[in-house]
User: Fold this.
Amino acid sequence: MRWIEETKKLLYNAYKQDILKRPQKGYTYIRMVWSGDKFGLCLAQTRKDNWDFLPVEGWDKFENSIESTIREIESIPSDEFDEEDDCYYEVEFSRKEWPFTQLDCFELERFLMSVVLGLTYLELKNEKKLSAYLAAIETVEIYSVSQQLAAFSNFFPDESVRKDVIGLLSDHPNNQKLIFDLWADQLKKEGASFLQKLTSRDQENAASLLELKLEKAFQKAEELYKKGGKQMALDLLLPQLEPILDQRDSIDWGLIEKSCNLVGNCYRFKSKNNFDKAAMWFQKGVEYLPYGASALNLLSLYKFSLKDFEALVHFGEKHLEHATKNDKDYTYHSYNYLAYGYTQTGKDVKAHELYKKIHKMFKHDISKMRKTISQLDDIQNTNTMAKKILKGFNNH
Assistant:
């Protein structure tokens, strides 16, 4: 067994023993918690914010941490002896692939611990000895270091990296598939089904109604936007969108992203004074879908409207981590914006390398190459690097 399976085994035994000590009642609410130091449980007939700590035999927050686990697997020392000072010094956690740092390990552990707690609850729910305690449960809340169980998209390395990390920490195919589905920009089948099982009936019905209202508001707002009614579109869409921005587990992410993107476009083309608001809404859209229209529109805003090329480069470099889906148009535009940003910020080597990559990938696409050449042609008189790159393009 690896970290996921070992942790789940320890938690299952601890929570089962704790529940069996309680009075048999028609409990309708359960909260399972990892505080970062200890585990907790609230089992009640009505929702409560308080919960009780419970001991977990065999668990140590340091020795059983993901950081410690990866250190052991990959032989990363926790300290080293300094002969000159005649003492040991702590060795910082560092890897060449994500998780890179101790903070990355914390974020990963916070996510995975909530998944393990969710899996533990589902197994407890099927335990016959606990049916008298859990059969009437309507509301399940899983918290890990103050964060409720949710899909994980805060850190989104390449697919191969995610699979390697999951393989280090789980040896059960079903668990591996579940974690991979939850560690995504959009929920996959097993991940969506898992979260659905841990959603209360009231939450489920409310989420469906909110999603329906948002979908209708988006469709009408989009029509108004196309007809030039940007303020009317905002007045219609924002009241439906803003209240559900934190419900990323129960509302379709694609719908939220395209709604954020529409709000961003309304602000962008409504007035120059609203460019900052437009950027904010495009950024919100990116949180829900890293490679949606919001990301490209944010790059466009930085280039054409704000002319903030440092921001373009900062976001573009980070964003390219996500631009791995099989969409050549999307990849082209992402690269093209970033390459332009490099030429405007004096990053000549990076500009040259990225434009070479664009040429290699899209040299047979006449329309894309024309666009890139036109972009370079516009600035070649004032930008030496652009002139050099353009000359290279024309020689091929």
Summary: Residues 363 and 396 are 9 Å apart (CA to CA).
